[in-house]
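Predict the 3D structure for this chain.
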Amino acid sequence: MTENNGYIVIKAEEDGVNVIGLTRGTDTRFHHSEKLDKDEMMIAQFTEHTSAIKIRGKATLQTAHGNMTNLK
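Done. Predicted structure below.
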């Protein structure tokens, strides 16, 4: 992972979008969560502690791999 590839931009497309960071290692656990309202944006980063990010709700994502949405 290069330095800039670890960042993602999350834009909430509705109120109450949950962004949950999951730990790296043998036990995957929640370690951080945020709730975004419509049109709020968050910049998140994969780190030595964060291996996955779970997003619940309608959002648009911008990553090093491209843009995606889950608006259906």
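The longest strand covers residues 17-23.
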